[in-house]
Amino acid sequence: MEDLLAAIKSGDHSALEQLYDAWHGRLYGYFYKKTSSKYLSEELVQIAFIKLWNSRHQLSTNWPLEVQLLRIMKTSLIDLLRKEVRDAKAYQLYNQHISQVAPTQQTEDFSNEQLQIVEKVMEAMPPVRKKVFHLSRYRGLSHKQIAIELAISPKTVENHITQALKQLRHLLK
């Protein structure tokens, strides 16, 4: 593993692939046990390896690579959980604010039934899709801004928005 650590530190992509192949299953299992979500588990595995690669120059030769990877795993999970709590609070505050102010032109255009459908669809969405859709449609962030904030690719953001809109269109017909 020391050779693998040195190779990763020097920027060897094949060494990262070897580590990924060796550890993907363990990381996925750990994240799945903590989140009970296949999607989030896979995202967290990707985030952990991206963090490892991006901080490869800071890896220590004094600690085994496994220990450093485990530390990155745990911090990735903690970061995600903190973001979930923060987003849930922001969403709750947003809903309180919306209920207190006069309806906007956009909400006036929807009937109550359609608004209830939108809310139900959003509640049924996976957590990341719900966040992506909320950040896009309610906070007006671009795909790139959302990708940076959630540490996912812009293409993943686009896919989530596409899927969310398909769900909404299907139920609003």
Question: Topology, pairings included?
Answer:
Elements lengths: L1 H8 L3 H23 L2 H17 L10 H36 L4 H5 L2 H13 L2 H11 L5 H8 L3 H19 L1
Helix pairs in contact: 1-2, 2-3, 3-4, 6-9, 7-9, 8-9
Q: What order do the helices and strands follow?
A: HHHHHHHHH
Integer tally of domains:
2
**Do you know the CATH topology of the largest domain?**
Rna Polymerase Sigma Factor, Chain: A
Which architecture of the largest domain does the CATH hierarchy give at level 2?
A: Orthogonal Bundle
What profile does the largest beta sheet have?
A: none
Overall form: elongated
Rounded mean pLDDT is 84
Oligomer: single chain
DSSP helix count?
9
Write out the CATH superfamily name of the largest domain.
RNA polymerase sigma factor, region 2, helix turn helix motif
Enumerate the spans where pLDDT stays under 50 for 5 or more consecutive residues. none
CATH class of the largest domain: Mainly Alpha
DSSP helix fraction? over 70%
The end-to-end distance, rounded to whole angstroms, is 57 Å
Approximately what portion of the residues adopt beta-strand conformation? Answer: under 5%
Structural class: mainly alpha
- Strand tally: 0
